[in-house]
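Backbone-to-sequence.
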């Protein structure tokens, strides 16, 4: 398969597959959390067009202790799986991805301008 060739999208087995809910669990603690995202206004997902807020660990951080000052905050925009061809492998690999629009802190002076 050529790396840029698109696989046929038949019954959810195509090149890009979109989904609306990501369930996150923990290997030690019980329970799970669901993140939802469906950004298509004309096609609500279970009656809603949610874009949940999330936080992520910044890239390049080796030793990480969670606190509000060392994470990036953002809004979940799209959950999808994409099939890619990796050099040296015969079969395509599926990657589960999340597109996140990050929030940036702005500093306003007393007049309300930056």
């Amino acid at each position: 398969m050529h790396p840029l060739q698109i696989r046929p999208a038949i019954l959810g087995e195509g090149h890009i597959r979109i989904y609306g809910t990501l369930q996150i669990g923990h290997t030690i603690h019980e329970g799970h959390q669901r993140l939802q995202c469906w950004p298509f206004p004309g096609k609500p997902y279970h009656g809603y067009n949610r874009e949940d807020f999330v936080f992520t660990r910044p890239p390049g951080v080796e030793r990480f202790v969670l606190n509000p000052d060392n994470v990036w905050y953002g809004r979940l925009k799209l959950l999808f799986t994409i099939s890619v061809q990796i050099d040296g492998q015969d079969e395509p690999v599926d990657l589960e991805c999340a597109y996140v629009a990050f929030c940036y802190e702005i500093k306003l002076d007393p007049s309300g301008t930056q």
